[in-house]
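To: structure subgroup
Subject: Chain for Friday's discussion

All,

I'm putting the inputs and outputs inline so they're searchable in the archive.
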Amino acid sequence: MNNQRRKELNNIAVAMENVSMPVDIEQLEGIKSDIEMVLMDEEMAFDSMPENLQYSMRGEASQEAQDNMNEAIDAIDEFISDYQDYEIDQIHDSEKDEDEEDIESEIEDRFQDLISEVVDYLEMAAE
């Protein structure tokens, strides 16, 4: 991974750390899109490497970075899907027995976990 892509990933990690409640799906989608762009650049760089370099430590590091970026994207996708399912459930089941405060607390906990997980993956990708 080159320095420019490292810098971009570090900037995305900072943006992810600055996301706060309430959950803004558009903001998460934007961060995911930014990661996907860096991932595409890294994949193109890997594909343009001579085959002998692809199997070197440099190539392996690129593949590991790609894997970490994919994991970050998957984590965001999973959170968004679960959050949207929760919102749909709330609309269709307004008489739910669970305490609204408990649900909000659980969402906030999962959101904080997501932030940590994505930042960790991006930091590993930028190494």
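Points worth raising on Friday:
The CA atoms of residues 98 and 104 lie 11 Å apart.
The chain has five helices and no strands.

D.
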